[in-house]
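Mods, move this if it's the wrong board.
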Amino acid sequence: MTTVFAMSGSIRRASFNTRLLRLAVDELRSAGATVDLADLAGFELPIYNGDFQEHHGVPDPAVVLQARIAAADGLLIASPEYNGAFTPLLKNTIDWVTRVDMFSFQPKLIGLLGASPGRRGAQHGMAMVEEMFSYMRCTTFRPHFSLPKAGEALDDDGLTDRAEVDRLAGWAAAYLAATAEHAVAAAPT
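Not the wrong board. Structure tokens:
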């Protein structure tokens, strides 16, 4: 059975990205995956600072997150876009996790989704996340799932357009199949 660790780069209660992530997680679970959905609000991490690490070590929440990520075959990230970039929360989380193990993300297939109220659906932010992971020699799943006009596309019950529901289900199924293949290929021999 394929396992996926999922997190949102937003801790805002009404986050479009967290709502979209939960819908994707539901699709993955319906397809038979085991999903570990983390709420980063429960993992308080100081802004990364080498002096802090030298004097205090790596914070326990980073160690816990790294272990949960290590236990999964794939990583699913909902990446909000702040001023055309990804969130400081997401960057800081990744920075701390790599202090536990620099290669934490390398064996995972990383799926990216993003939602924004604008017409581009967080595409700039996701491109930056992909570029960062590429620099770290990680593999991201293509295409990313982008949801534009999220204020209209999402309500309390989920996606408002049946075509978007089907598109997310298809994307989640393709990501899950690719994750299973990637996990087999990345397994030590």
